[in-house]
Amino acid sequence: MVLSSITDSLSRGIEGATASLSEALFEPVIRLGVTGLSRAGKTVFITGLVANLLDRGRMPQLAAQSAGRIDSVWLQPQPDVTLPRFDYEGHLAALTGDSPRWPDSTRAVSELRLSFRIRPDGWLSGLTGPRTVHLDIVDYPGEWLMDLGLLDKSYADWSDEVLTRLSKRPEAAEFLATARAEDGSLPHDEPRAQALAALFTAYLAGARTAGWADCTPGRFLLPGDLAGSPVLTFAPLPRPASTPRGSLWHEMERRFEGYKSKVVRPFFRDHFARVDRQIVLADVLGAIHQGPQALEDLRRVMADVLATFRPGRNSWLTALLGGKRVERILFAATKADHLHHSQHPALTAIMQAMLREARDRAEFAGALTGAMSLAGFRATVEETVMRDGTPLDCVRGRLPDGRVVALYPGRLPDDPARLLSPARQGADRWLDAEFGLMSFEPPLKMTLRPGDGPPHIRLDRAMEFLIGDRL
């Protein structure tokens, strides 16, 4: 039995090494991880990206396209037959149909493969024919990515951090009152444990609806086939003076450790650790609109996210030996179409400032990181209107009730510190400005020229940063 296990393990290792070497030398594969924090529009981003890679008329900043090196791009079945396929066609139909709507969010890991036929240039063009490069887009919930930060925490540390953070959030009032009244040293009672977990889950759902970025453990909101299992039936508690075996605290601690070992680590091993390039989407405008505390929460979460990556440079040899590192990481502020283009540099600057400290650490370790503002699917057009004799740069779009309106959301400061400083200090509201935000719907009756994908903002620049060197 042991010999058979060793033989199987060696066989899998040899097969994996052979596959890695074949990919590196003949048809290289780029695994692009795409994740988004609360309300970032991840599904819309991926749909717009795929559509614009298949029809590249709006991708002039992708150098391989502008230089004429891309002969063709086509969809293929994803290589991992155990993963759901990203429903690109269904999502695109939702965005561009007769009654356009935003597609439903994905709630689990999914995958899609795009294959590029690349024409060589320079002195190689006369020696070799076109080559094939595969792009595997791996879509996974942002809540699952944030769970990676739990791996280095004990149940006691996690409970203390969560209870401290929740004390400032009105959505947590009911759960906090119940948890603080609980004596974790008393014998474990399963109905009581389930009631605490249910209250904690209700808080997480409320926090996500309110726009808070930190909503972990992520599987509490996206349980799948784990719903009702012990690994999703725990909650943070104040630590009692004693924690005997059989106590509520002891059982909660056991389940927390089970969540890490049975849920978080397999995700890291099977999906996250295999990513070559990564884009993290964030609704920065939504956080600004909600207020300073929401913006600080997003800044902290995004710094934690970057810290979970294993940055560094890949080569075919390190991949062959299993020492993969994420080579490039892009943090993108989505919904840039909610602002006039004159404000996009300010939005990008805010994103860059939020990531400065953690980004410097990643670059020192060898990873290339970037920040930009973009829109995977543009829902507005720009317009300048006059108010009291003053021109205002607005965006015009369709609201959920069908009305088409022009919005001036307020002016973002050129200096990000004007927002980040009060956010770090825990201010309750912005003192010198208010920022408006509307929920625009996809535009009606979209007509595209042959060869053009849907309108977007900077998808071509994002892809040039992420995969341009491999094309």
What CATH calls the topology of the largest domain is: Rossmann fold
How many structural domains are formed by the residues?
2
Measured distance between first and last alpha carbons? 46 Å
CATH architecture descriptor text of the largest domain: 3-Layer(aba) Sandwich
Give the number of helices.
Answer: 16
Report the β-strand fraction as a percent range.
15-25%
Low-confidence stretches are 1-22, 316-321
**What does the overall shape look like?**
globular
Main beta-sheet strand count, sense and barrel state: 7 strands, mixed
Rounded to an integer in angstroms, the radius of gyration calculated over CA atoms is 24 Å
Strand tally is 10
Strand order of the largest sheet: 2-3-4-1-5-6-7
> What's the mean pLDDT score?
85
CATH class of the largest domain: Alpha Beta
H-E order: HEHHEHEEHHHHHEHHHEHHEEEEHH
Short account of what is shown:
The protein is of the alpha/beta class and 471 residues long. Helix content is 39%, strand content 15%.
